[in-house]
Amino acid sequence: MIRGRSPDSATQRAGLGALGLAALAVAWELAGRAELLGPSWPPLSSILATLADPTRARLFRRAVAATVAEAGQGYLVGILVAFGLGLVSVLAPVSRRGLDRLAALLNAVPMIALGPVLISTMPRHRVPVALAALAVFFTTFVAATAGFAAASPLHHDLLSVFGAVRRTRFRRLQLPASIPILCTGLKLGAPAAVLGAILGEWFGAEDGIGPILVASMQNYRIDLLWATALLAAALSMLAYGVMSAIERAADHRFR
Amino acid sequence: MKPPSSARFVSSARPAEWTAEHGNGSGEQRPVISLRGVSKAFPLRRGHRVTALDDLSFEVRPEEFVALIGPSGCGKSTILRLIASLEAPTSGTVLVEGRPPADLAREHRLGVAFQDHALLPWLSAWDNVALPYRVAGRRPDRDRIAHLLQLVGMTGFERARPRQLSGGMRQRVAIARALVLDPDVLLLDEPFGALDAVTRRHLNVELQRIWAESRITTLLVTHSVDEALFLADRVIVLSSRPGRVRLIRELPFVRPRDRSIIRTPEFHALADELTAALDEITEGP
Question: I need a labelling partner for B255 at 20 to 30 A (CA). Which of A128, A209, A235, B237 fits?
């Protein structure tokens, strides 16, 4: 049964993954209890207890809501700008080189260095959104321009033979052909947007995961620091997971 | 605007054996496709060039089905690409309806089927056939699309995506797509070349039937002598590297044709002659 093997190996992979995760959790727990990595590395169980503490539920909820809102707005803005510039670069090829350079330049500036610049140019509560947008901009721009160039030469020939003008070629061929690659870019951009938003919050935001991280670090609240960090990681992974599912669906539909 | 096209409808009552009777009558009608002294060289690395076609001339008359055969690498596909305006000749002229070939494509009056079906994977069979309408900025004609899908035997598969179809079915859809706008010129680049022999034979019979209904001026590239003899009014044999016209044969078979013609002595004689010519080209003098 050749066909039977693939679901088997899929279950096997999932099982192995779960096993690896469990092993990591146990190792963490033991290392934390024995303070192998010092007192600032607590066991997993105490971090989870902090996360589940009902008196902190409101704090975490508000923080997650704020960060998700900022990361989400930044994600949308970053995608729209990147997609728009990608569109310009494909419909006006003369601008392609310049836009590529601009994107590479923006990507080369460390986000942490941009923070102070942004604070001096915009209201503080906008900085997380701006950094999230910047974080997602580059991958989306690269994915969009690569995606618009992804259609096969044969399909381009076909559209030429049928007398397609540039706009029609883009709409009927380049745009649909770009969707799988675009979705890969959006998948990579999702955790980047979360990271960008949290980083932006460090520059003086009132709500969100970032301020809790900063406050608990300064006040030596080790459990709270780890719990919040875990929350941030979970948020990133969730965003990545959702976009992975969308990417798979797009791949199935458009490839 | 398009004299050869309107001529097709006016003269559709013409006897089927017209080309056989007027074998050498190319002077009486303006050719639809004409190549005059066409050469095509492709640059290689370090300034070297390879000459694919050299001083090639031939014509395709209105409503004629011409098959180009030749060994691999004789520039057969390059000829189609020149007529489709996907390439420009290094020297010489390529004219379609007396004008540069790009005009025909721009006016959405060219139909093409490649060896690779080139269907868009995200579109259903129906939408793939409707694509030429959309590219031309026209509303897809539902009746016409249904008719063509029926003609190629794909009724019932309208919603299937290319990956759900067999190789033969994809080529059927590609043929329907090439014909949907009722083009003035049809270019076929080994459309069944990637299929198994049985499917290929079967599709050739159907292509012959479909073509007999529409009589679009057609140029077919193939390396199968049988395919060329079965489908065409005239066969042009090309020599290889660089491609030149080696032999031209008018075919006497009346339309509509069925598989029985391949058992006739004329078919055998022509097949032997063309195969010998191809062998000679491949083995050298």
Answer: B237
* Helix, strand or coil, per DSSP, at residue A120: helix
Instruction: Give the closest residue to B125 by CA, choosing from B166, B170, B168, B167.
Output: B170
Q: What are phi and psi of B68, to 5 degrees?
A: -105, 120
Q: Is A96 on the interface with B (CB under 8 A)?
A: no
Token pair for residue B131? Answer: 């694509």
Query: Looking at residue B284, what is its pLDDT?
Result: 58
Within a 13 Å sphere around the CA of A187, how many CA atoms are in the beta-carbon half?
Answer: 17
In chain A, the residue whose alpha carbon lies closest to the alpha carbon of B177 is: A162
Which residues of A fall within a CB distance of 8 Å from B132? 162
The closest of B36, B34, B39 to B87, measured between CA atoms, is: B39
Strands B65-69 and B217-222, sheet pairing: parallel
Paired with B186 in beta bridges are B111, B218
Residue B183's closest chain A neighbor by CA? A162
At A11, is the pLDDT very low, low, confident or very high (cuts 50, 70, 90)? confident
- The CA distance from A48 to A53, in Å, is 9
Report the chain A residue with the minimal C-alpha distance to residue B112: A161
Return the pLDDT at A130: 93
The confidence score (pLDDT) of residue A1 equals 42
Fold that domain B30-109+186-196+215-285 belongs to in CATH: Rossmann fold (3.40.50)
Predicted complex: ipTM over 0.85: no
Asked whether the beta carbons of A142 and A192 are under 8 A apart, the reply is: no
Tokens encoding A42: 């607590």
Residue-range domain boundaries for chain B: 30-109+186-196+215-285, 117-182
CB contacts of B136 in chain A (<8 Å) are 162-163
Among A162, A175, A182, A254, the strongest candidate for a mutation testing the B interface, having the largest count of B CBs within 10 A, is A162
Angle at B102 between CA B173 and CA B118, to 5 degrees: 25
A11 at the B interface (CB within 8 A)?
Answer: no
Element (H, E) at B56: strand B49-60
A161 vs B: CB within 8 A: yes
Backbone angles phi, psi at B238, to 5 degrees: -105, 145
